[in-house]
Every structure is written in structure tokens, then in C-alpha cells.
Amino acid sequence: MSENSPAGEVTKKRYWLKAMFVFSRFLVVIAIIGLMIGSVVTMIAGVGQLFRIGSFLLTEGILSGEAGTLLSVAVSEMIDLLLIGVVLIIIALGLYQLFIDPDLILPDWLNTTSLESLKGRLLIVILVVLPVTFLGYVTTAEDGIMVAGFGIGISLIMVAIGYVLSVVSRAGIERRKLEIHEAVKEE
């Protein structure tokens, strides 16, 4: 069999396909490592926020005029940072399960069956983060028109994400109904 024969060309094409597959897995590993590093940094920032809150309360006192505002905003931001850190870990595990080791044993709620489920998790986190971002902006803003514009912009984004999630959710429910219907029909 010569290299110019059809079988030789098929082997050569398969080699390139396999090489591209290995390279893509390498890129996914880089993304996973980046997500894990990002998670650590984000969680450290969240703990730093906790120290900032503690420092403020020690220096200004819990009864100071700004304590309530600081606590409501800073605690929300701290929870946000920790939540984002956890979601980065969940996305890293999902990518690992999808591209590297599909047999990875995870709790059922953490199993990732598709890239769509990872995107859905990310969109939900964005829906949670946006109001907290707005809350932080409102407490420091001085121009009411800018606050209104910022709020309207965030609201529009949240409505769009909510709509996308509802469409995806309805499609998933319909798909499950069809699967159940087909399974009943086969019996």
C-alpha cells in the first residue's frame, strides 16, 4: 500500500484529526486550570471583603451611620464573590467531565451532560450578580439619572437572560415529555 493510495490518505487524515482532538483537549485543560486559578483568586477576594467589613466595624463601630449600608452592600458583594468562585469550580469540573473524563464520579446535581447545562449555570450566576453590582453602584452614586440608566440597562439584561433561560427550560421539559412518550410507546 503506497502513501498515495486511498487507504494511505485516510490514515493521514485520521492522524490530523487525532492530533486536532488531542490539541483541543490540551486547550480545555488550560481553560480548566485558568478557571481554578480564577476561583482561588475570587475566593481570596471574598475573604478579603470579610476582613474589610471587620476592619470597618472595629474602627467605626457597629452603631455608626454608615454601618448598615456598608454591611448590606459589602456582605452581598462578599457572598457574590464566594458564589462566583464556587461557580468557577463547578464550570471547571463540568468542562473536565465533558472533555477529559466522562466517567468522573460526581454528585448527581453536579453531573454535566452538555455544554448547554454549563451555560445555563453561568447565566443564572449572572442573574444573581447583576443586582448586587447595581446595589453597590447605587450606594456610591450621586447622579440619579446615571443610576436610572444603569438600572434600566441591568434590568434589560436580566429580562433577556430570564427569557433565554425560560425558553431553554421549556425546551428541556418538552424534550423530556417526548422521551417519556416514546418510551411508553415502545412498551
What does this structure look like?
The chain has 187 residues and is mostly helical. It has a domain at 6-108. 84% of the residues lie in helices and 0% in strands. The protein has 4 helices and no strands. The protein starts with 5 loop residues before the first helix and ends with a helix. The model has no long low-confidence stretch (mean pLDDT 84).
Give the helices and strands, then pairings:
Layout lengths: L5 H55 L6 H34 L14 H26 L3 H43 L1
Helix pairs in contact: 1-2, 2-3, 3-4
Low-confidence stretches are none
**Structure class:** mainly alpha
Helix % is over 70%
Roughly what is the average pLDDT, rounded to an integer? 84
- Tell me the number of strands: 0
What labels would you give this structure?
single chain; 187 residues; mainly alpha; 4 helices; extended
Provide a compact summary of the structure:
The chain has helices spanning 6-60, 67-100, 115-140, 144-186. The protein has 187 residues and is mainly α.
